[in-house]
Amino acid sequence: TQEQPNATSYDATALAIITFEVFTGMWINAFIVSVLCTGWVKKKTLNSNEKILLFLGCSRFLYLCVSWVYSFLSITYPKYLYAYSMLQLVLPIQTFLNYFKLWVSACLCGFHCIKIANFRNSFFIYLKAKIDRMVPWLLLGSVLLALAISILAYDIAEKLHSKNRNSTCRGNFWEESIKMEEHLFHIYFITGFGYAASFTTAIFSALLLLFSLWRHKCNMQTNSMKNLSMDAHIRAMKSILSFLVMYSINFICLILTIVYSAKKNENPTMFLTYAFLYAFPGVHSLILIFSNPKMENTLLRILPCVKCKLCMK
Fold this sequence. Notes:
Elements: H1 3-43, H2 48-76, H3 78-83, H4 86-116, H5 122-170, H6 173-222, H7 227-263, H8 268-290, H9 293-312
Helix pairs in contact: 1-2, 1-8, 2-4, 2-5, 2-8, 4-5, 4-6, 5-6, 6-7, 7-8
């Protein structure tokens, strides 16, 4: 009798924390999208960096929306989630948006590395000259990869739903669970491979950029160049280091979701994992805002106005 209220209070706390993180992240990414769209209307064009940021902001906003719906249903109405085939609808959309935002963020890291880093390699110089033309193809490739994995997720969700229904009717739980474990191995393998590939791309690009900035900083010190330029490079290096730490933790959390979903365990570690995963899109987008002077100035202009309106109310 005491376990039921404890479980209910734990679910309510988890849902409240997830809701706060999700709606904060949605507001931050909606701000990025609105600033970019406003600039698009004024200038009639977007540069390559703004295109990637626009796709990243939209994908993260939609991902947080769908993830909140999935979390709300799984915590509040778990039977409805499975009984009325909601899983077949929500899971593929969430999978598509999850992979799409991961690959777009990896594209953003690669784009910044190629644009900012300074290496004398001929292939790197070729990429630097062609990167603006490659950006639309990179975004299209991200869409196709995410779509392929989401189709596979839909197929798995469909078979999971049908097997659960059939096993409930026949009472054949052990045989059906073994068949399902064999089936889920493929989706776990592909999911892990997708996470590892995007993580490797982002980390490798960030490390190259960090090395290039560090080497440039050393050259500025030996050549006695202005401290202002060197301070800018130090700030950029700190930003990249913070991104490396955050992205590494995000990758570990993604892998933990695979491990714990395979074991079907619900524990505080899993809650902390999902809490960080829901916080990452908002926190990283906030870092992107403060690394962009235009967005930072717009945000700093908006915040006093919002504060004044709240005080007046």
